[in-house]
Amino acid sequence: NRMHLVCPMNMSPHVDPHKSGHGIWEEFSHSFTPAVREVVEFAKRIPGFRELSQHDQVSLLKAGTFEVLVVRFASLFEVKDRTVTFLGGKKYSVEALRAMGAGDLQNSMFDFSEKLTGLGLNEEEMSLFTAVVLVSADRSGIENANSVEALQETLIRALRSLITKNHPNESAIFTKLLLKLPDLRSLNNMHSEQLLAFKVHP
Amino acid sequence: FSDPASNLGLEDIIRKALMGNLEERPE
Lengths: 202, 27
Hints:
The complex is a heterodimer.
Chain A: H1 21-44, H2 54-72, E1 77-78, E2 83-85, E3 91-93, H3 94-99, H4 104-118, H5 123-135, H6 145-166, H7 172-197
Antiparallel strand pairs in A: 1-2, 2-3
Helix pairs in contact in A: 1-2, 2-5, 4-7, 5-6
Chain B: H1 4-7, H2 10-24
């Protein structure tokens, strides 16, 4: 009988107690579905992605959508004022969200967002990094791992040369970016555990 | 659900978004 939804992909963390489970789900899908569609549209523009088999495109997107969304929505976690902005536009303090049930995942999201923002990437760098994140997603359901690996290597090489060109005196940036991949994987695992434990009662 | 992605209907959204493009592709 949880009365709060602490994921910022909701319009607000407050749940109308008179709303049915189906209604709560429907409202969430209004924000969630367009965000996922945007990830798919982004994936389609990654050079080489559409050449993967359809099965592998779906598998990578299933495994990597959360990680891509974490990167895209990192700015919702504002480290300076310790707030999270929900998709409805309102900000909630870390303490308020903690009282509503947010736990370790929230802390880890702040940590990730702070480190990513600290790298000061421009739009092009962020976009290429996001492409690397998607093709680096879990490969357990992949049919042709060699093709995915080749695409990942190509994108990582492109990211390295872009970062080297733009930040000639900051070679650590590229390494720091690659180290974000395992961080994203553990955020994904934490999120999956919460999702599995989450139930909306009808 | 044993698969968190199924819990959100993620696969269905992804497939529709991917297929949409195929349908729109000119002959």
